[in-house]
Amino acid sequence: MPERVLVTGGAGFVGSHVAEFYATRGSEVTILDNLSRVDTLESADETRATGAYNWKYLEEEYPEIERVKGDIRDAELVEEIVEGHDGVVHTAGQVAVTSSLTDPRTDFEINAQGTFNVLEAARKADSDPTVVFASTNKVYGDNVNEIPIRDEGDRYWYDEDAFEDGIPESLSIDDCEHTPYGVSKLAGDLYVQDYAERGEVDAAVFRMSCIYGPRQFGNEDQGWVAHFILSTLRDEPLTIFGDGKQVRDVLYVKDLVRAYDAFLSDPEGKTGVYNMGGGSETTTSLLELLDVLEEETGARSDISFDEWREGDQKVYVSDISRAKDELDWNPTVDLRTGVKQFLDWYDTYSTEN
């Protein structure tokens, strides 16, 4: 386990859980965040300010964590902060397809150039840190939608035996439509692979599916599981883009952090590119999640439907075989248990706020 860990985007949902994980285990932790999420997400508002909430949470619960307000686009700052750490978890990024379509330059500067800055800082650092990069399933673009699917009532599923376990890391990224977000994350993804292959930095790419859990304030742009839960609890209407039968594998955030740590603690000889999610055993459609939420809360939001959004995938499920084999890792939290844990957290949160 690394002794000194830097988490970029450390006030974000995933980043804050990474920071908490290492702080509770005695590592020295630094987080870097510019707290920009509300500004960069089209449908975000102050009541769903994940970064501001987690910044305060970490300050109060883990005062030993060093908190630095700064931007990964500032190469000099990143180089200064990376030095001295032996592990870097790079979760900072522009996180929404919708925002990338309206402002692709900012999306590129954060996701591609920002990742390059982190890699260069790690390459130069005397402390020789191992790097984990939070990538995305969107790197596969519309090739995902070229796989035949079948309608199973309230969900779609792959209609080709080769994909019964989900999408492997070998699926082509070429000859298809992408989005600016998918392209910028893929650029960072490939830079990480290149630096690792050339031996410049020990590094891994985690192409994440839908990650959810406590301290996440999702909205229409990003974090759909949390968005659905919060809208249900707050009796707010929900818009479903498409027909609601689209399927995702979902992964509880603490399971994700364990996978990160498995690589950071022992990077030697590992491939370094992992599709990361709940896999074929932990999937849900949007409609199915609404049913689970109604069973757990007794409530259901008013639902309206709109056109499919650009870059959406009707089915995306991660084949997590490589992560299981190389990292000796398995998801441990099923969807219903994860939802209950989110509800327990929100009950405490709403009482305190």
UniProtKB/TrEMBL annotation:
Residues 5-277 form the NAD-dependent epimerase/dehydratase domain. It comes from the Archaea. Pfam families: Epimerase (PF01370). Coiled coil: none annotated. InterPro entries: Epimerase_deHydtase, NAD(P)-bd_dom_sf. Belongs to the NAD(P)-dependent epimerase/dehydratase family. PANTHER family: DTDP-D-GLUCOSE 4,6-DEHYDRATASE-RELATED. This is NAD-dependent epimerase/dehydratase family protein. The lineage of its organism: Archaea, Methanobacteriati, Methanobacteriota, Stenosarchaea group, Halobacteria.
